[in-house]
Amino acid sequence: MELRRLAERLGLDDVELKEVVRLFVESSTADIESFASAVRTGDSARAAAAIHSIKGAALCLGLNDISRAAREVELRSRQGCLDGLAEAAAAIKRNIEKISRYIGER
Questions:
Q1: What is the pLDDT of residue 28?
Q2: Is the dihedral of CA 66, 14, 33, 59 positive or negative?
Q3: For residue 24, how many C-alpha atoms fall within 13 Å in the half-sphere facing its CB?
Q4: pTM for this prediction
């Protein structure tokens, strides 16, 4: 998993890694809920801002799959094209939940 490389690159022990990832999961979960709410109300600017936050945090942590998916969603949001993005956001949320389970096992 990409998190192992992150820990090695930053010299983090397991406790520190868990804390960094826990913060990512916590903030990204709130952002994905904000994104979903924005999509439901048709607010593409708020949707783009919420998903941008996830993209940036994922990129900083080396979570490339999440970052790439969020980038695509952000681009479409900025273009005002919200159709089908709820499903894309659900896929990002599943990846975040997978990470949450991973750190719970450590």
A1: 96
A2: negative
A3: 28
A4: 0.86
Q: Which two tokens stand for residue 51?
A: 């998903």
C-alpha distances in Å from residue 46, one per residue of 30, 38, 63: 13, 6, 23
Contact yes or no for 82/39 (Cβ under 8 A)? yes
Q: Which residue has the tokens 């949001």?
A: 77
Q: What is the pLDDT of residue 105?
A: 58
Q: Which long-range contacts (CB under 8 A, 24 or more apart) does 72-76 make?
A: 73/35, 74/48
pLDDT block averages, 10 residues each, the chain of length 106: 78 88 94 95 96 95 92 95 91 92 72
Q: How many CB atoms lie within 10 A of CB 101?
A: 10
- 21 vs 58: CA distance, rounded Å: 10
DSSP string of 37-82, one letter each residue: HHHHHT-HHHHHHHHHHHHHHHHHHT-HHHHHHHHHHHHHHHTT--
